[in-house]
Amino acid sequence: MISAKRCTNLSRKNVSTIQTRSLFGGFGLPDFSTGNENEFYKESKVLPYAQRDLYNLVANVNEYKHFVPYCTHSRILTKGPIDLQKSGAVEAELGVGFQGFEERYNSIVTLDPYKSVTVCFHILFHTPLFKTLQTKYTFTPKAQHTELAIELEYAFANPLYATLSSTFFSGVSAQMVKAFEERAKIICNR
After folding, report:
1. In a domain, 64, yes or no
2. Diameter of the chain by CA atoms?
3. Has residue 33 been placed in a domain?
4. Which of 16, 114, 129, 153 has the fewest CB atoms within 10 Å distance of its CB?
5. Which of residues 143 and 173 earns the better pLDDT score?
6. Within 13 Å and on the Cβ side, how many CA atoms surround 99?
7. Which residues are paired to 118 by β-bridges?
8. Which position has the higher pLDDT, 172 or 8?
9. Does the structure show a pLDDT above 80 at 135?
10. For the Coenzyme Q-binding protein COQ10 START domain, which residue ranges apply (predicted)?
11. Is 181:84 a contact under the CB 8 Å cutoff?
């Protein structure tokens, strides 16, 4: 399971809010959730690349829109130079789209160089789509290869969204591993 502590212990002064357009927000549906519907998916695969190379690929959030399934938008919002080789957190705006719907939301991206990248939707960034959305990528050396593991935890703010997406999310972890594998072939020249 992904620990939400890193995502929920942030204070309002440490993050900024951005106005985003919402296709889901127009429904105006109430939140019937009980707080216990988080879904979890995990997928892993050993890839023929160095741990450092896979970490750099995943840490480069700005590029997600070019290859991550259902990602329609990705950009780092944190101002100034960002050193992906140092531990820390940055704010990012991400967009997901499916069957004509799109939702943009802000996340905190926590970098632990060469070990993990955690992307957490933060409750301070209001969106009518997600109650929880966390993705954790871990990189474990295996001989001269690296195991890439992706853990996905999510809960929708409304049961209608959960129903519409039930089949959609079941294969997302596997699709994400495949997308990073294909991107690594291009970036790492293998």
Report:
1. yes
2. 52
3. no
4. 16
5. 143
6. 6
7. 110, 136
8. 172
9. yes
10. 48-181
11. no
Q: Whole-angstrom Cα distance, residue 187 to residue 159? A: 39
pTM of the model: 0.76
Query: What are the distances in angstroms from CA 118 to CA 19, 81, 112, 154?
Result: 23, 19, 9, 13
Identify whether 2 is part of a domain.
no
Domain count, the chain: 1
- Beta-strand relationship, 39-47 and 71-76: unpaired
Question: Quick one: 180 exposed, middle or buried, by C-beta within 10 A (0-12, 13-18, 19+)?
Answer: buried
Enclosing domain of residue 127: 39-189
Q: Look up residue 19 and give its two tokens.
A: 């106005």
Q: Quick check: 13 pLDDT over 80?
A: no
Domain annotation covers residue 180: yes
Identify the CA nearest to 168 among candidates 118, 105, 96: 96
Amino acid letter at 107?
S
